């Protein structure tokens, strides 16, 4: 008999293998087995990269859309004031004009249309403020309303006043994009407890 043969069952007992070789040691982590991938940790969420599946603070793009709504509301205030003051001034000038050329020039300006645009701008102002206030606590309906607001704002800014409405065009497009992207969807569809 030879004690040098490692496969001899009657041979000299072999030394314990060094750590990392052979059987796993008690204090060392187990290596994954062959054939099956390891599962993700149980605490990992599956919701747009947010832990727990939903954001806890308003994403920056959604916050930017909210700020843009406030900017549009401020611009609407300025527009309402300009249209109302212009309608009052034209109405007063056409009533007291003694010069026939001035009376003819002012007679073609539709004062009623200016008042109608002022009333519409006030309504759009209220709509923008309501959306901006609801961004913090609103659900998917607020998201859809913000998308509609942004798209209609962009469309309305093109036709009558392109140069003046260019700011509204850009802001309307950005509001629609920021409310409609994945961060907006995750924010407005988050669970509320």
TrEMBL record:
**Bias kind Low complexity: ranges:** 1-37
Protein name (database record): Integral membrane protein
Query: What range does the record give for the signal peptide?
Result: none
Parts of the chain that traverse the membrane: 67-93, 113-132, 144-163, 169-188
Is the keyword Signal assigned to this protein?
no
Q: Which residues form a coiled coil?
A: none
Which residue ranges are recorded for the region named Disordered? 1-38
Could you list this entry's UniProt keywords, alphabetically sorted: Membrane, Transmembrane, Transmembrane helix
